Amino acid sequence: MQVRELQPRTLGVTDYDMDAPLTAIRRLMLESNGLVTIAFKRSLIKDGTGKPQSDIGETEYDLSGKWLTSPCCQIEPSMAFQLGLPVLILREKGVIAEGILEKGVLGVYMPEFDLSGNLDDDIIGFTQDTRKIKEGDMYIPLIGEKNDGHDYIEQAFINGASSIITSKEVQYSHKNVILVEDTLKAMSDMAHYLRKNRNVKVVGITGSVGKTSTKDMIYSVVSTKYKTLKTLGNYNNHIGLPLTILRYCDEEVMILEMGMNHLGEIDHLTKIAEPDIAAITNVGTAHIGELGSRENILKAKMEIVHGLKNHGTLVINDDNDMLHTVEADDYSLIRVGKNSQCDLKAYHIDLQLEESYFDLCYHEQTYHIHVPVSGEHFVYNALIAIGVGLSLGIDIELCIQGVENFELTKNRMEIGRASCRERV
User: What pTM does this model have?
Assistant: First the structure.
């Protein structure tokens, strides 16, 4: 741990007493999204009367027991070190040193900031919408263009929330309250921490069109072998993706859809998700008004590999003229489509009214594929889904079964009958 000494005047601390660390703690909490604890040099540990206690042990810093002084954090210093939380060390009289360790996600409750809580409480789920709160959830108040979620904290607790994070000081002594600098960033940090610290494979999907139907088909394939979590609805942006990850329970694979309007947006999402496998359905003209050219759209979609795990896999539709130009760098590349260069090649495509059939050439073997919806784009979706499944070690026969059992998200490509009895 690198320790940097800060003179008292830098932090507004004039002398060591029961209240001197407050300014330093506030500063450190702001720098580390509220994740901070403090350790006292043993000669400075005081009991409730403010009198120094005698040294007890060999180490320079006290890493056992709970704090004896005010302000007190209800976290043992030894636990803070194990969890990699930021640590503020009070050393000699009038001099404060700080050592920032790798960030964790455990909040510290500071009574002086009207924060409170019980470390033994479990959080059942996470939501930014008070209308969707269930008993035991954590409410995340986000600040938007028109509304500030902090205005609904009281309603969140009424609806059953047990915990909140907040960027504004509030007073709820009977609830779990964690102060952070930015609630959106804290939510993203929590999602990233969870992803990194769970034994789960992540599949990221993007593309100009077809993301949702491809996600659904990949889910159908992957769930033939693994317990799987997927993006629901349009939760594919900087808010929805972290919330999807925070839905994780004990799944073995997460399938995450990533949308974008501008350059840099998928870069942000993929660095939260850190996919093991990424898939790009196509590069079209959607968002060309914001990006200016299909070349820029390709650049934006290819940001998905910025977060790709080492030796990860990218699956692409190689019949798309823009994606055909992609060359693998430090990851595996699976090309799917109809052209002869594809690793998974479709031919003898038969598009019927409500279903599709095609033959698949893979490792010089031919497999007959049935897709329960019609359309050539679903043939590409099936190829991408099979490519993802194979990358996850799923037998090709199971992949084919997953494609055949695919169910499209409701209201997409549904066939109905108009009053004139024509099907639409």
Answer: 0.72
Q: How many residues does the chain have?
A: 424
Q: Which domains does the chain have, with CATH numbers?
A: 4-99 (no CATH), 114-187 (3.40.1390.10), 198-404 (3.40.1190.10)
**Which pLDDT band, with edges at 50, 70 and 90, does 25 fall under?**
very low
Residue 46 has pLDDT above 70, yes or no: no
Distance in angstroms (rounded) separating the CA atoms of residues 154 and 156: 5
**Which residue type is seen at 295?**
E
H-helix or E-strand spanning residue 143: none
Among 10-24, 115-129, 209-223, the range with the most confident prediction by mean pLDDT is: 209-223
Mean pLDDT of the chain: 77
The CA distances from residue 45 to 7, 146, 156, 314, 412, in Å, are 20, 48, 39, 55, 65
Q: How far apart (Å, rounded) are the C-alpha atoms in residues 292 and 226? A: 40
The CA R_g of the chain, rounded to the nearest whole Å, is 27
* Strand 277-280 with 4-6, pairing: unpaired
Q: Give the residue from 106, 108, 86, 105 showing the smallest Cα distance to 97.
A: 86
Reported as half-sphere exposure (CB side, CA atoms, 13 A), residue 88 has a value of 28
The torsion of the CA quartet 186, 191, 194, 198, rounded to 10 degrees, works out to: -170
Host H or E run for residue 109: none
Which distant-in-sequence residues (6+ apart) come within 8 Å of 51 by Cβ?
A: none
Structure tokens that stand for 103 in this block:
């960030």
Nearest to 1 by CA among 44, 37, 26, 43: 37
Nearest alpha carbon to residue 314 among 196, 207, 198:
207
Torsion angles phi and psi, residue 347, rounded to 5: -150, 175
Give the residue-averaged pLDDT of 123-134: 94
Cα separation, 78 vs 204, in Å, equals 37
